[in-house]
Amino acid sequence: MVIELVVATRNKHKTREIQHILGPEFLVRDLGAHPEVSEIRESGTSFEENAKLKALAASKQLPALVIADDSGLEVDALGGAPGIYSARYAGANATDRDKIDKLLRELARVRATDDGRRARFRCVVALARNGDLLGIFEGTVEGRITDTARGESGFGYDPIFVPDGFEQTFGELPREVKNTISHRAKAIRALADRLRRLEFGG
């Protein structure tokens, strides 16, 4: 039996990554197939608040299991920035390159030491149906920020983040490796366990 999910996003990169993490047991769609769902403003003050806002809002408009994630990069030398503003760090219409360039400029500005380049990706996933919250799932991966972008894989800040235990950035690591160790992979695996219990009455 295939479990169908709608991700409250129009980010195709994120949708593909979630589908790859979940595998063929799940069918993942996103809001690209639902133009009737209006843009959901991320007005929360934490990853959890934003994930819940998006999941609940979309689930009230769609007859489906809905998930929403909010995730971002927290850099020690920048006091945890960009954090919940990761996607909008360099402006509303900034490219991934724009965001990376701004972050590296900020690290140079504060003269970040090696310790200050410590960082983590954090992900919170909310699961909802018919306007009811069914669960919250979290994942974190620790690492460091490189001096320059490396690699063409992934998206967002992946080319400047080296996870602990590796020498390659998320932009250089094979997708199969990243989708085993990443913050999103950890949160999505916990979600999958809950979904299997829901689906099969466990």
Could you list some keywords that capture this structure?
202 residues, alpha/beta, 24% strand
Kindly describe this structure.
The protein contains five helices and six strands, in the order E-H-E-H-E-H-E-E-E-H-H. It has 202 residues and is α/β, with parallel strands linked by helices. Strands 2-1-3-4-5-6 form a six-stranded mixed beta sheet. The protein is globular, with a radius of gyration of 17 Å.
Q: Which value, in Å, is the CA radius of gyration?
A: 17 Å
- Count of discrete alpha- or pi-helical segments spanning 4 or more residues: 5
Structural class: alpha/beta
Order of helices and strands: EHEHEHEEEHH
Sheet with most strands: strand arrangement: 2-1-3-4-5-6
User: What is the number of strand segments?
Assistant: 6
* Amount of beta strand: 15-25%
In a few lines, what is going on in this structure?
The chain is α/β, with parallel strands linked by helices and 202 residues long. Helix content is 31%, strand content 24%. Helix 4 packs across helix 5.
What is the fold's blueprint, element by element?
Blueprint (H helix, E strand, L loop, with lengths): L2 E5 L4 H11 L3 E5 L16 H13 L6 E10 L20 H14 L8 E12 L2 E14 L15 E3 L11 H7 L1 H18 L2
Parallel strand pairs: 1-2, 1-3
Antiparallel strand pairs: 3-4, 4-5, 5-6
Helix pairs in contact: 4-5
